[in-house]
Sequence to fold (201 residues):
Amino acid sequence: MANRADNFNRADTSGNNIGTPSDGGSAWINTLSGSWDIGSNQAKETSGTGQVICVLEASTALATVQATATNLGSNAGLVLCVSDDNNYIVGVFAPGFSMAVYKRVAGSFTQLGSTYGGSISNGDVFALERDASDNIAFKQNGVSRVTATDSFNNTATKHGLRANSDTSVRFDDFSITDNSGGGGGGTVIPVFMNQYRQRWS
Fold:
């Protein structure tokens, strides 16, 4: 169950019901914070205040989590190595500052690495990865934009999506790739034919 994927191609839902992913594995865990549903074959936040995340169990902490941001919104991202709503690694993308990585420890955020201030666009593919040496990389369309090394939460095996009080955020073509089989680089293996269509508070 280490490699996971969801194309979100299913009926629209409501009431915090993002459901079972297209890979047929265990269901999304979206009771950590806020509410997530399906809309027009995409994942969307439907309610919540502050950090709102939903995750899949992948049975590995060494992973690449990837998704297409079909609508960036004001402040969204990917979460890696989640143990609960207050402890995880997050890669944030927002039009105001572009991309940054943080760890959330007992509810408090600390930035890891530098901030990338380049252009980002709807339809970009973002990936957040960790390897066996605790190297963390946040990528845009396959290009590394932010790197850091940190051992926090390196045994947590849930990974997923993040929004921040913004119901306009939309995600598509989500995947988790297991990086524990050696090589350590966290290379993303494409899962979907179209996956390269290519404010923080």
